[in-house]
Each structure stands twice: as structure tokens, then as C-alpha cells.
Amino acid sequence: MTADGYSGSDLTLDTLTAATIDYVALNLGATLRGLHDSLLRRRSPSIITTLHEKIAVAIAHG
Fold first, then answer.
1. How many helices and strands (H and E) does the chain possess?
2. Which pLDDT score, from 0 to 100, does residue 34 have?
3. Phi, psi angles (nearest 5°) of residue 61
4. What gap in Å lies between CA 57 and CA 18, rounded to an integer?
5. How wide is the angle at C-alpha 39 spanned by C-alphas 53 and 51, nearest 5°?
6. Sign, CA torsion 14/20/23/24
7. Residue 1 confidence (pLDDT)
8. Which of 31, 48, 30 is nearest to 39 (CA)?
9. Which residue of 36, 46, 49, 51 is surrounded by the most CB atoms within 10 Å?
10. CA dist 46 → 2, 9, 13 (Å)
11. How many CA atoms lie less than 13 Å away from 7 in the CB half-sphere?
């Protein structure tokens, strides 16, 4: 994280926003905490919480 609070997860969200991604399917856990925190701060893209990572992958595949 930089001194102004910009982190790698913020860069990831900037990339998703630029690609017009509206939803992110996640199985929340400790390994995604930074991404989850950034998503909660920005509120975009919207979070779809899943119970298992296989479900998140299936949603992402459409």
C-alpha cells in the first residue's frame, strides 16, 4: 500500500472498472481480504457472495 492508501487491490478494481465489469463473485476468506476491503470502500463492482469457490468460478464463466 502506498502512503496515500492506494493498494494493489485498488489497482485491480480500477482494471475491472475499466473493463466495465459490474459484478465480482467471491468466496470471502483471508486471502481476499485486501480485495474485499477495497470493494467495500468503493461499492463498485457489486459483490456476489458464494459459499464455495467452485460456485464463484461457475458464475464467472457465465
1. 3, 2
2. 81
3. -75, -20
4. 21
5. 25
6. negative
7. 57
8. 48
9. 36
10. 25, 15, 11
11. 12
In 3D, which of 9, 4, 59, 12 has the Cα closest to residue 33? Answer: 9
| C-alpha of 18 from chain center | 14
Grid coordinates of 27: 468466496
Q: Helix H segments across the chain?
A: 8-18, 33-42, 53-61
In whole angstroms, how far apart are CA 36 and each of 25, 40, 50, 62? 11, 6, 13, 22
Task: Examine the pLDDT at 33 and tell me if it is beyond 60.
Answer: yes
Number of residues written out for the chain: 62
